[in-house]
Specification:
Layout lengths: L3 E5 L4 H12 L3 E6 L5 E2 L3 E5 L5 H15 L4 E4 L14 H29 L2 E6 L12 H21 L4 E8 L22 H13 L8 E4 L4
Parallel strand pairs: 1-2, 1-5, 2-4, 5-6, 6-7, 7-8
Antiparallel strand pairs: 3-4
Helix pairs in contact: 1-5, 2-3, 3-4
Bound molecules: NADP nicotinamide-adenine-dinucleotide phosphate.
Length: 223
């Protein structure tokens, strides 16, 4: 049976590459983004939703269940990045980055995880960052939000795996995406990975029929 995957942020970058890779490998995919139009095709449901809003989360879960009947895989992928010395950040920026990168995904997972418990199976994948493995200068807010998602993934994995639910935290290094549109491209941008370099190994994990599952996947460039 085709796996049903719900992904946040499928309109761009890593999320867009995952949508395309998973569809090409037979999955049914529901993607949420603010820039999407509400539209359904045979294997793709796009949902216009802001996942920082409660109604956005309700809409994407309800529409996915209406269209595809269940959710086998949840990919918490949406995110933003902010750069700068810590003393320059405002309270609004602190709230904005935690709302998108952390709170929205905790709230969405709290809606989807009980469905997976009822199904006695499922896979939750959090797209984190190598910024959750080591703190970096001028990325305090981004790093803090990603360390929070690392903590969530590790603790949920400990809780969920005995109940048949897989949890994987993915830690990509730099990837060429729209994430850097507002802050400007980092110096090393030209040697960053392509979104497909993340999408393929993540799709391999999702489609594996192994009873075991890596709880962490670090994807760095080869040189
Ligand atoms: N690029 C990298 O170097 C890199 C490295 C490690 C980890 N990551 C992580 O990978 C994930 C994907 O980022 P990306 O690099 O692919 O960036 P991207 O191209 O900017 O994509 C971000 C996605 O998040 C969506 N999004 C943002 N705010 C949203 C909201 N409030 N509600 C719904 N969707 C929202 C955007 O769609 P709309 O704007 O249409 O809403 C877009 O589809 C992020 O969690 C990022 O931290 C990226």
């Amino acid at each position: 049976m085709a796996k049903v995957v719900l992904i946040t942020g499928g309109s761009s970058g890593i999320g867009k590459a995952l949508v395309s890779e998973l569809r090409s490998r037979g999955c049914k995919v529901a993607s949420a983004a603010r820039s999407h139009k509400d539209k359904v095709e045979e294997s793709l449901l796009t949902i216009k939703a802001d996942i920082t809003r409660a109604e956005g989360i309700e809409k994407l879960v309800d529409k996915t269940l209406d269209a595809f009947g269940r959710i086998d895989v949840l990919i918490n992928n949406s995110g933003i990045i902010l750069e700068g010395p810590f003393e320059k950040h405002t309270d609004e920026e602190i709230e904005e980055i935690f709302n998108i990168n952390v709170l929205a995904h905790l709230k969405l997972t709290s809606r989807v995880y009980p469905l997976m418990l009822k199904q006695k199976g499922g896979h939750i994948i959090n797209i984190v960052s190598t910024n959750a493995l080591m703190g970096r200068k001028n990325f305090t807010l981004y790093g803090a939000s990603k360390f929070a998602m690392r903590g969530f993934s590790e603790a949920l994995n400990a809780e969920a795996r005995g109940k048949g639910i897989k949890v994987t935290a993915v830690y990509p290094g730099g990837v060429q995406t729209g994430l850097f549109d507002k802050m400007g491209k980092p110096d090393e941008y030209s040697v960053f990975l392509r979104p497909e370099d993340i999408a393929k190994p993540v799709a391999d994990l999702i489609l594996s029929d192994s009873k075991g599952c890596p709880s962490t996947l670090v994807i760095n460039k080869m040189a």
